[in-house]
Amino acid sequence: MMPIQPLTLAGELVTLEPLTTDHHDGLVAAVQDGELWNLWYTSVPRPEEMGAEIERRLELQELGLMIAFTARRNADGRIIGMTTYMNIDAANRRLEIGSTWNAAGVQGTGTNAESKLLLLSHAFDVQGCIAVEFRTHWMNQQSRAAIARLGAKQDGVLRNHSRLADGSLRDTVVFSIIDTEWPTVRNGLVHRLKFGSSA
């Protein structure tokens, strides 16, 4: 697995482009669509915290621990969210797709499914990953269902895994897709996008 450099991944519905500070205002507008920061079991930045969150992701990218993307809808060029490759483990050819959020107005339109197809395709077909992981809060039923719809399998639950900003403890559900499963997962995602079953 070669070191991953910032890159652009383009699909029919969405383009994932390298995160920059120039995306700040567009990301603030996107996060205000649905006020996603009010969901206590997620870690979505508040509008006034967006600058610090961009800097945090870019600092982790400089350390080789993350590749940060801004998601842009192709139809109108609107910025709709953020996602990353994170916890990159080149020696073991593994990484996690996470720190993802999307504006409420684009959820269920296929942009998230296509984003995952782009990220997974690059991870398995270009980087040669043998496993890609997804993690979410036990209480985040929407996220858990979306990850399962991708074709990922639940590996287990890390109990009392981390402490949230409000002091509560998070039980983290861990899912993964391994390289031998990837062709089937890819076919499922392509079918969902083609026939409109795209949450």
From TrEMBL:
<feature type="domain" description="N-acetyltransferase">
    <location>
        <begin position="14"/>
        <end position="153"/>
    </location>
</feature>
<dbReference type="InterPro" id="IPR016181">
    <property type="entry name" value="Acyl_CoA_acyltransferase"/>
</dbReference>
<dbReference type="InterPro" id="IPR000182">
    <property type="entry name" value="GNAT_dom"/>
</dbReference>
<dbReference type="GO" id="GO:0016747">
    <property type="term" value="F:acyltransferase activity, transferring groups other than amino-acyl groups"/>
</dbReference>
<dbReference type="Pfam" id="PF13302">
    <property type="entry name" value="Acetyltransf_3"/>
</dbReference>
<protein>
    <submittedName>
        <fullName>GNAT family N-acetyltransferase</fullName>
    </submittedName>
</protein>
